[in-house]
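[User] Could I get a sequence and structure tokens?

[Assistant]
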Amino acid sequence: MKSRLNKLLSILEQENLDATIVTGIHNIQYYTGVKIVTEDTLMTLYTSKEGEIKLYVPLLEYYRVLKEVSSDIEVYSFSKTILKDVKYAGKGLKDIIVDLIKSHKKIGLDYKFAPTTIVTTIADTNKDRIVDISGHISRHRMIKELDEVKTIKKAIEVTIKGIITAIDNLYTGVEESFLAGIFENRVRVEGVEEYAFPPLILFKPNNSYPHNLPSRTRLKTKDLVLIDVGVKVNGYCSDLTRTIPWGRPTYDERRAIEAVNEAIEEVIDYGEPGIKAKELALKAINVLKKYGLDKYFIHGLGHGIGLKVHEEPYINTRSETILEPGMVFTIEPGVYIPGKYGVRIEEDVIVTSKGLKVLSKRLKRILTPLRS
């Protein structure tokens, strides 16, 4: 993690800062390697141009964090304690941050990522001292290092195993929630500690809504199974979706699957460094328009994956982000006919110097179960 900390320290020089404060929990995870158990945990990472690196954490996280982080980082508890082996900061987190801001003429802050309570603190202090370093941090996290890509690939491989196992357990009458449990059990066997998000395994008409939760809805003799799942491996996410026909699909359903698949193909062929993210989204929309289905595509084309399952770069019609090698994101066009059915296929890709490379290519895009 030393190289990551050096990235953070480089911001001090670039912006001529006296110090930086990082409060976004996943930013702290990125720079220090500390495991995030709950996303609502408050922590603050402080660095100074003199080389000080301090991490302020609640007492219940103190011993675990102390064990996980580099010896270059001083760990302090901002919770009161009578334990003699705990470095107590002497005050609560809000007062720590206020004092840090006031003790420097120019200090960087990941303002865009800051928890609401921290933003309130900033509003009550002298804003002239604060420089928003969110852009620098976003860029660090968007351009994945080789070890990050390797870990994301592992998460994808485990996810594929879970999807295949769920498909192998399809039968008429099976419940969505049962299949979700099958997926969860399969990836747990592989050592997964947490999911990127709750698994979405949905039949008609539940899959006609982009986000829905598995219920006790049973698989019909003629149906569409939408599986949208992801896991975390060492903190890094995967996110894959497949739509599987059960029984012979209708003409409109087959057409929707064909359109979505063609949209993905067009985007993969077109994508390369130097183009804007919004061009990918427009390319997919134009394919769906050819089929008369563009009005049923009601979300962005994709999003970055990393320490969070939704992070920059966002691939939508408003995004001015320029594609660069090392960016990892999803491509997930969909067609949703309200109250009837939904079709979505999602691949995980990385930008290379030659174009887009599909990281999830081992899983066939168009799947047919062994029996239906």
Residues 208 and 338 are 5 Å apart (CA to CA). The chain has two domains: 2-141, 146-358. The radius of gyration is 23 Å. The mean pLDDT is 95.
